[in-house]
Amino acid sequence: MTNRSLAEIKASIHGLDESRINPDPFAQFATWFDEAHEADLPLPMSMSLATVSKDGQPSIRTLFLKSFDANGFVFYTNYGSRKASELEVNPQCALLFHWTELERQVRIEGSVTRVSREESDTYFHTRPRESQIGAWASRQSEELDSRETLMARVADYTSNFEGGEVPLPDWWGGYRLEPRLIEFWQGIEFRLHDRLVFTRDGTGWELQRLNP
Asked: Is 129 a catalytic residue?
């Protein structure tokens, strides 16, 4: 990754052209993701995750992308949370990255599967110890009678795990979204935006331009 300012990156943006976009959407995403970091944007790994319940009720929330490669996009959560409960009954979901300062969005649609417990364990132990204990203390998405109750559980687990490694909870881990659609959106003046969308076509990708 080079070291360019936000102004320098913005000056280099001239819309999206089919002849210049990387034919591998994961590589193209990596370029934009790196530029969002390079421009020192706030929380460039932040993304919105949309899920749908078994009754057809959509919900959306913001979380962090933790890793990605040609196999998909990985995030972590409590498997008892609302998002996880909805993903278990309906694994179809969507992600949205919005880098306002660069006038860029990336939309990703696909289905999720759980990552291996070994992969979850490896990531879990890269988190701050306090966050590891928080994963034990929080019964995510369940009703909480008071913050004092939560902090009391934090204190209990802090004491229980004192002097040793915090184990990965059985109810906590990752999901990998395998995309079937990745859209790159570049803002252009007068709302004549560029939209190039990759759609999975067997083992490859079909590229199309959409109207703004």
From this structure: no
* Tens-digit pLDDT string for the chain (212 aa): 567 888 888 888 888 999 889 999 999 999 999 999 999 999 999 999 999 999 999 999 999 999 999 999 999 999 999 999 999 999 999 999 999 999 999 999 999 999 999 999 999 999 999 999 999 999 999 999 999 999 999 999 999 999 999 999 999 999 999 999 999 999 999 999 999 999 999 989 999 999 99
In the chain the domains, ranked by start, together with CATH numbers, are: 6-115+177-210 (2.30.110.10)
Written as six digits, the tokens of 204 are 């490859």
Catalytic residue of the set 114, 153, 191, 209? 191
Give the HSE-up count for residue 23: Cα atoms under 13 Å, Cβ half-sphere.
Answer: 5
pTM of the model: 0.93
